[in-house]
Design brief:
The chain has a single domain, classed as Aminopeptidase (3-Layer(aba) Sandwich), CATH 3.40.630. Helix content is about 25%, strand content about 25%. It has five helices and eight strands. The longest helix has 14 residues. The protein is globular and about 45 Å long. The two termini are about 15 Å apart.
Length: about 180
């Protein structure tokens, strides 16, 4: 990728990479973090993100933007849970559950949560990955898109979720720009 193309792609990313701040590791040795999600349509709208240890894994939350009624109520724009137990032997992070509130879908919030946990995994020398059979009908198309696998026809969707194209999927090292 040419330098300008790379810069343009980074500019369009929903996860503000420079906003990631690491905290103390959780009880398994996996890092905790805070970050910012930037709305693609209105760069002035930013959502706080947080990732913390939860039941032996890591929970990622994207909170409503500051100053909105939802945030004052403690509302979430999206949340995810990842299997991240690391010490004493690092292993790749695995997806488990991810959800975005209906009125926040198609904004890149899910992508930002995947990108954040992938960045956190890289600090341990590992990656975010999953089995296609674990993906829902809403997360399957995103994973297919970022991995370059076909997902347009009912036959392709069936083959994707059954893992016929690839047994495990890895999130792109540099993140996704969808």
């Amino acid at each position: 990728m040419k330098p300008f193309e790379h810069a343009w792609v980074l500019l369009k990313m929903p996860l503000v990479r420079d906003s990631i701040e690491y905290g103390e590791p959780d009880s398994t040795g996996f890092p905790t973090a805070t970050a910012t999600f930037q709305d693609r349509d209105d760069p002035n709208v930013q959502y706080p993100m947080e990732a913390y240890g939860d039941q032996g894994g890591t929970k990622v939350r994207v909170l409503e933007p500051l100053g909105t009624l939802g945030y004052l109520r403690g509302g979430e724009a999206g949340h995810a849970y990842f299997r991240t137990g690391y010490d004493p032997y690092p292993r790749n992070t695995d997806t488990a559950d991810i959800s975005t509130e209906p009125h926040h879908r198609r904004k890149g919030i899910g992508t930002a949560m995947y990108d954040l946990i992938n960045e956190m995994s890289k600090t341990k020398g590992t990656r975010l990955e999953t089995y296609p059979s674990r993906l829902s009908d809403s997360s399957g198309p995103l994973w297919a898109k970022v991995t370059g696998l076909p997902y347009n026809t009912p036959d392709e969707k069936s083959k994707f979720h059954q893992g016929e194209y690839q047994s495990r999927l890895e999130w792109p090292k540099e993140g996704s720009y969808t």
